[in-house]
Amino acid sequence: MTQERDSISDERLDRAGRIITKAAILSEAEASEIAAAPFLFARIQARIAAEPQVSDAGIWTAFWSISKRAIPAMMIVAALSSGLSLYFTGNKNQPAAFSVDAYLGTNESGVENLVFAERRPLTRDEVLAAIISKDDRELGR
Amino acid sequence: MEPSHDPISRESSDANLVAAVVQGDAAAFELLFERHRQRVASIAGRFFQQAPQIEEVVQETFIKAYFGLANFSQYKVDSFAHWLARIAFNCCYDELRRQSRSHERSLSDFNYTERQELRKLTSGMGVTTVESAAINRDLAHKLLRLLSAEDRLVLVLLDVEGLTVAEIARLMDWSSAKVKIRAFRARTDVRRLLKKFL
Q1: Exposed site from A25, A40, B125, B167, fewest CB < 10 Å?
Q2: What span, in angstroms and rounded, lies between the C-alpha atoms of A118 and A84?
Q3: Is residue B88 situated within a structural domain?
Q4: What angle do CA B64, B170, B1 make, to 5 degrees?
Q5: pLDDT in tens, B22-37
Q6: What is the CATH number of the domain that holds B91?
Q7: What residues of A are in contact with residue B45 (Cβ under 8 Å)?
Q8: Is B97 a domain residue?
């Protein structure tokens, strides 16, 4: 019963909707009058003639509008990436959580212990001094 | 069938005029305009009532048609008139969407007298004179502006143009499912709006 009342009501509303939609349209005579407006074709021709210029200008306008958004975004990305790279490069001098020395067990050997304990690369003089001292020891024997 | 390349005249077929326009004949385009402008204005009059809006749709339609004529043969359409109507409906749809972005309306825009008039109009009790038709049109437009552009378009195509779902789908390049969903939503929205008046 309720469903029937609802469907009748819907039908009535649909009919009212159709009346409204049809009431909103312009009559053929009025449309014809507007279509016969003077200079309508001249205006179309003028717009067609201006269209290539508009589209050329449109390319630059589009380029400019994209640039306005893209350039600041790229600057932010560049600043962030340089900031992050600086941050991580700066952290390189701090001791790492994972120790190579502990892994290789270099604490128990002699010269190797010294070599692995030194994080900075050996200079030429240090290498030469190590060789000479080794040679001296062998000669001493 | 290939259009013949006879000199153009008022009796030339649309296909011959289109071929002439593609070859740069401005007079042929004017003949096409003369032949079809009333139909385009009539389509625009389904959605708009102000002359400047209708003129804008007419201009936009013919400009788009002009630039699309070179590829006209690629479009799988029955005739130039059908193709032009498709462009006109799409221009109206674009204009409706532009309007719906700039206008925010609500039911409170309707005063007591307008609500009474709407009641009379929908019940068929109103006296139809030229003046009352104009008033009714204003009211109907005011009410239809509360709907979305898609809803309005589908309602006009279904109720005024009398097109089927398949024809609307072809015209607007939508899927049949989309048309059915749109039609259902449009009817629901109209019912919801009208329930507040009736």
Answers
A1: B125
A2: 28
A3: yes
A4: 70
A5: 888 889 999 999 999 9
A6: 1.10.1740.10
A7: 25-27, 30-31, 34
A8: yes
Does the global pTM surpass 0.90? Answer: no
Per-residue tokens: A66: 């994209």
pLDDT, residue B118, reads 74
In a domain, B40, yes or no: yes
Establish if B158 belongs to a structural domain.
Answer: no
Give the separation between CA A22 and CA A39, rounded to whole angstroms: 30
Provide, as residue numbers in chain A, all residues whose Cβ is less than 8 Å from the Cβ of B42: 26, 28, 31-32, 35
Number of domains in chain B: 1
- Same structural domain for residues A89 and A117? no
Distance (Å) from the alpha carbon of B24 to chain A's nearest alpha carbon: 13
End-to-end CA distance of chain B: 55
Number of domains making up chain A? 3
A59-72 pLDDT, tens digit each: 666 677 777 778 88
Contacts of B68 in chain A (CB under 8 A): none
| Cross-chain residue pair B159–A22, CB shorter than 8 Å | yes
**CA A126 distance to own-chain centroid:** 49
Mean pLDDT of the region B141-169: 91
Domain holding A12, by residue range, is 1-37
